[in-house]
Amino acid sequence: MALAHAIMTALIEDDLSGYELSRDFTTSLGFFWNASHQQIYQELRKLSEKGWLNKREVSQSGKPNKIVYGLTAAGRDALSEWVFGTTRTQAAKDELLVKLYNLDVSNVAHITAEISERREGMMQLLYLYETIRRRHYAEPASLPARRKGVYLALAFGINQGEHFLSWCDQALELLSGMESVEK
Amino acid sequence: MALAHAIMTALIEDDLSGYELSRDFTTSLGFFWNASHQQIYQELRKLSEKGWLNKREVSQSGKPNKIVYGLTAAGRDALSEWVFGTTRTQAAKDELLVKLYNLDVSNVAHITAEISERREGMMQLLYLYETIRRRHYAEPASLPARRKGVYLALAFGINQGEHFLSWCDQALELLSGMESVEK
DNA sequence: ACATCTTATGCAAAAAAATGCATATTTATT
DNA sequence: AATAAATATGCATTTTTTTGCATAAGATGT
To answer: Which of A34, A47, A135, B175 lies deepest, with the highest CB count within 10 Å?
Structure first.
C-alpha cells in the first residue's frame, strides 16, 4: 500500500497523467520512491476504482490525448490518515553489500569497478540534488510547511549521497591495497 | 534472485539450518538483507531442488532435530558467477521520506515523533555495529580477503547510521521551529 | 509512402515478497 | 497433568513487483 500513497503524494498539488507521473518518478519524489510506468498505470486504475482519484481526458495539440488524475476528497482523507500510521523500518537491501560478503582475490577487481561506477553515478545525482537545493531551497527556514518537508527529504538525499562517496573512497582504498597484494 | 544469493552467501563458511539462518538474518548479513523465516524456508527448498544446496538432518539433544543446508559445488559456482553480474542500483524506498512530502502543521508533531523514534532505533543499531567493529574488525588492513569485504559492509552501515543521526538532528531542529510557529 | 522518435496507455504472466495459518519437539514451570 | 516458552519447519494465499508484450497518435525526417 506504499506506491499508492507515493502516487497520491505526487498529486497533492498538481493533477497529473500516468505518463507525467512516470516521468516525475525519475526525479523529485521518485528519488525516494520510484516505479515503472506499468506499475503506475495499474495503481492509478486501482485508486480510481477505490474512489481516491478522479480522472478526465485532456486534449492536447501535437501529442496524443492524456488522462489526467486528481485526488478526490476521499483520497485526500486517506492520504492524511496514512501519514499518522506507523512506518515499518525496512533495512535497505543492497546487493552490493551482499557481494562484499563474497569478496575474494578473484573478484576484487570487479567489485572495485562496481564501486567506482556507483561512485560516479552518485556524483551525478549529488550534482543534481545540489542544483535543486540552490535553486529552490536556499532558505529552508522561511519555506511553507510542506516545502520544508520536501527540503528535508532532499537534505536526506544529499546527506546520504555524501556519506556514500566517502564510504566509496574508504572502500576503494582498502581494496586497492588488496589488489597490490594479489600481484 | 536476490534472497537466494544472500542465503548462499550466509552459507559460504558454515552450514546452517533454516532456523539458524533466520536468526542470523537479524544480524550480520541480515543488517543489509533480511527475510522472514517463511521466505527462507521456501528459498531453501528451491535452492535444494536446483542442486545448489544439499541438506542433512542433524540430531540434537534437548531440542528438536534440525535440517542443515550447505553449498554444493554447483552452488558455489553459481554464487561466484553472480558476483560478476551487474547490480541494478535500486533507490532505497523509505516511507518516511514520502511522508515528509505530506508535511503539514496538522501532522508535524507525528512526523517529529517518528523521526525521534527512528533516531533512537539507529542509536541502538550503531551501538551494536560499534561493538562488532571493536571486537572483530580493529585492524581491517590485516584481515583476510573476505573479512575485509564484511568489514566494508559494516563500515557502510556505521557511516550511513551516523549520517542518519545528523540528518535527524537537522530535521528535528527545522521541525521544532515549525511547531513553535504553529502555536 | 516509410521509418523512427516521443508521447501516451495498457494487459498478461511470472517472479518475489509478505502475511496468515499450522504443526511438532523438547524443556521448564506450575 | 497442564501450560508455556523456545526451538524447528513448513504450506497456502495474497500482495507487490518485475518483465515482456502490445497498441496508438502525432511529429519529423528521408
So the answer is: A47
Query: CA-to-CA distance for A40 and A44, rounded, in angstroms?
Result: 6
- HSE (CB half, 13 Å, CA atoms) of A115? 28
How many other C-beta atoms can be found within 10 angstroms of the C-beta atom of residue A179? 12
Strand order in the sheet with B16-17: B16-17, B66-71, B53-58
Q: B49 burial class (0-12, 13-18, 19+ CB within 10 angstroms)?
A: exposed
* Chain A residues close to B30, C-beta within 8 Å: 91
**pLDDT confidence of residue A103:** 96
> Inter-chain contact B89–A170, Cβ cutoff 8 Å?
no
Nearest CA in chain A to B90: A94
Same domain for A8 and A28?
yes
Q: Are residues B80 and B133 in the same domain?
A: no
Confidence of residue B181 (pLDDT cuts 50, 70, 90): low
β-sheet bridge partners, residue A56: A68
Q: What is the rounded distance in angstroms from the CA atom of residue B103 to the CA atom of residue A140?
A: 14
Which of B149, B160, B178 is the closest to A100 by Cβ?
B149
Structural domain count, chain A: 2
Distance from CA of A62 to the nearest CA of B (A): 33
The CA dihedral of A109, B157, B20, B117, to the nearest 10 degrees, is -160
Residues B120, B166: one domain?
yes
Which residues span the domain enclosing A12?
A: 2-84
CA distance B72 to chain A (A): 16
Measured from Cα to the C1' atom, the residue closest to C28 is B62
Q: Which of B33, B94, B103 sits opposite A146 (nearest CB)?
A: B103
**Residue A85 and residue A3: Cα distance in Å, rounded?**
15
Does pLDDT of A26 surpass 60?
yes
All 3 cell numbers of residue A1?
500500500
Q: Where are the beta strands (DSSP E) in A30-176?
A: 53-58, 66-71
How much is the average pLDDT of B20-31? 90
